[in-house]
Design brief:
It is a single chain. The chain is α/β, with parallel strands linked by helices. The protein has twelve helices and twelve strands. The strands form three sheets. It has an eight-stranded parallel barrel with strand order 1-2-3-6-7-10-11-12, surrounded by five helices. It has a two-stranded antiparallel ribbon with strand order 4-5. It has a two-stranded antiparallel sheet with strand order 8-9. Helix 6 links the parallel strand 10 and strand 11. The relative contact order is 0.15.
Length: 316
């Protein structure tokens, strides 16, 4: 993968599947090293980062809870000497899996001023001023952050110091969380300027809220484009039919559906290997017809059912 991909400026590489030995994504078995020790996963991460960079991707998305993702990325940037990579990271979850696939608990969520201060210091120590966007990880409508004035003021201070501040969302009420979060202000200025939400053919419910956020001048990132691997490993027949018609895989069809949305400024891909990245990137040359887009729109699941299914996925 040595030729830059057209439209790569809209694509980010996410390291959720590579920064730790276990994750809920389907399709990682066989893609990752046979032995998932730190050295092997670090080498695998470097390989995917190299291929993403060669393809023209200059955005990388990590998080404090993605195991050693920030550490791996920082090491790769230092070793390769790249200075043109736009890094986004997230705070709010702590990785507690101790590099074990069979850990009882892999991550713990806490939206507090103390957690923010501690994790921002950790991110800063590893990545420094290469972090362009720092996001609240998985903001929901019941998050204490929304009413925690000292925490909101701390986030506003980070924004005032030149780091864009955003939030990611999850759950069936993503649209409500987006609306509430963008309503937060300190001294008459919005706290957040970016949002990263789940949107894919199975769960498109946040679309109108994301379109509105984009229209208001905020940056919109889309995550879980493959529904945690479901659209690649367990794709509905309609997706498989469209893929066959275009001579590509179902993953490329799902990514193309996201890229078709003008409001999606950045589309985050989360491959576990270079072959998966190459397959995902075929979406860049795939143009869906109006009829095909309508077929994909008909695959939308009830948001509550979608998120219940997601929460049932095991770490493996």
């Amino acid at each position: 993968m040595r030729t830059p991909v057209e439209g790569a400026e809209r694509i980010a590489l996410g390291l959720a599947a590579l920064g730790r030995p276990a994750y809920i994504n389907l399709g990682r078995d066989g893609a990752l090293p046979a032995v998932r020790d730190v050295a092997s996963m670090r080498a695998a991460t470097f390989t995917v980062l190299d291929d993403a960079y060669a393809a023209g991707i200059r955005r990388v998305d990590v998080a404090r809870s993605y195991g050693r993702s920030e550490e791996f990325l920082a090491g790769w940037l230092d070793e390769r000497g790249h200075t043109d990579v736009d890094v986004s990271s997230k705070w709010g979850y702590a990785y507690v899996g101790e590099w074990r696939i069979d850990a009882e608990v892999h991550e713990v969520k806490e939206h507090s001023a103390a957690r923010f201060a501690a994790q921002w210091a950790e991110t800063l120590a590893l990545l420094g001023d290469r972090v362009r966007l720092y996001q609240v990880h998985s903001l929901t409508v019941d998050s204490p952050l929304l009413t925690d004035e000292p925490l909101v003021e701390a986030l506003a201070e980070l924004s005032a110091n030149g780091v864009a501040v955003g939030f990611s969302t999850s759950g069936p009420a993503q649209a409500d969380a987006i609306e509430r979060a963008f309503g937060l202000e300190v001294a008459g200025r919005p706290v957040f300027s970016a949002v990263q939400s789940t949107w894919n053919p199975l769960e498109p419910s946040a679309g109108p809220a994301l379109a509105a956020a984009h229209a208001a001048g905020n940056r919109v990132l889309v995550k879980e484009t493959l529904a945690n691997g479901r659209l690649a490993v367990e794709a509905p027949q309609a997706v498989l039919d469209i893929a066959e018609a275009h001579g590509t895989g179902p993953d490329a069809v799902a990514v193309a559906a996201v890229l078709a949305n003008d409001w999606a400024d950045t589309v985050v891909l989360g491959p576990a290997s270079s072959p998966q990245l190459a397959a995902n990137l075929r979406a860049a040359t795939l143009s869906l017809s109006t009829d095909e887009e309508a077929v994909l729109a008909g695959l939308a699941e009830d948001p509550g059912e979608y998120w219940r299914h997601r929460s049932s996925l095991g770490w493996h």
